[in-house]
């Protein structure tokens, strides 16, 4: 099983910090954000999220049973069928803070209209049905810089079998 983040069966505290405190922690840790992550972090779910301890796992799309990949909804359905839960969307920044040892991506291309190499997507329900609004976060280490990035896609976009996703284990 894939575990680039080092989260396999690891319990991490998610929430319990107001947005301002969380933003300060991200800045202090030197975590880089893209504009889509900034948009997500402005959502009201980050106003004052309740804290909870969650047990995370990481899987490739192939490990979820989709040998040729699938759309986001197919990936999420496969995760549920495997007995796993989607992450609360607030998990992204808390996982980033807890996983600064993620290996560097094999390339430093930040945006190319394709799945980013070395990224781990945080599998979570979208906050908006608007296709222009970011759907969630992914974590990536580029040139020794930790990134918390937001992404946009619609349900025609196919996730490759090698794409990695973080999920919650019940």
What's this entry about, in short?
It contains four helices and nine strands.
**Helix content percent band:** 10-25%
Number of strands: 9
Unreliable segments of 5+ consecutive residues = none
Order of helices and strands: EHEHEEHHEEEEE
**Gross geometry:** globular
The helix/strand class is alpha+beta
Major sheet description: 7 strands, mixed
* Oligomer designation: single chain
Count of helix runs: 4
- Amount of beta strand: 25-35%
Rounded average pLDDT: 91
How would you write the strand order of the largest sheet?
Answer: 1-3-9-5-6-7-2
Q: How widely separated are the two ends?
A: 18 Å
For the CA atoms, what is the radius of gyration? 15 Å
Describe it for me?
By secondary structure, this protein is an alpha+beta fold. It has helices spanning 19-28, 35-41, 72-81, 91-98; strands spanning 10-14, 32-33, 52-60, 70-71, 120-122, 136-142, 145-151, 158-159, 164-169. 21% of the residues lie in helices and 25% in strands.
List the helices and strands and how they pair.
Layout: E1 10-14, H1 19-28, E2 32-33, H2 35-41, E3 52-60, E4 70-71, H3 72-81, H4 91-98, E5 120-122, E6 136-142, E7 145-151, E8 158-159, E9 164-169
Parallel strand pairs: 2-7, 5-9
Antiparallel strand pairs: 1-3, 3-9, 4-8, 5-6, 6-7
């Amino acid at each position: 099983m894939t575990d680039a983040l080092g989260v396999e069966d690891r319990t991490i505290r998610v929430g319990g910090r107001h947005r301002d405190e969380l933003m300060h922690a991200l800045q202090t840790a030197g975590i880089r954000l893209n504009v889509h992550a900034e948009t997500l972090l402005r959502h009201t779910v980050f106003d004052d999220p309740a804290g909870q301890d969650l047990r995370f796992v990481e899987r490739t799309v192939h490990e979820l049973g989709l040998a040729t990949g699938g759309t986001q909804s197919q990936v999420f359905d496969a995760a549920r069928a495997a007995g796993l839960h989607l992450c609360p969307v607030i998990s992204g920044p808390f996982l980033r803070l807890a996983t600064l040892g993620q290996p560097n991506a094999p390339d430093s291309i930040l945006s190319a209209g394709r799945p980013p190499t070395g990224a781990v997507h945080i599998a979570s329900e979208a906050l908006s049905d608007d296709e222009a609004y970011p759907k969630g976060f992914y974590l990536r280490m580029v040139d020794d810089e930790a990134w918390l990035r937001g992404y946009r896609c619609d349900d025609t976009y196919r996730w490759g079998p090698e794409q990695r996703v973080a999920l919650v284990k019940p």
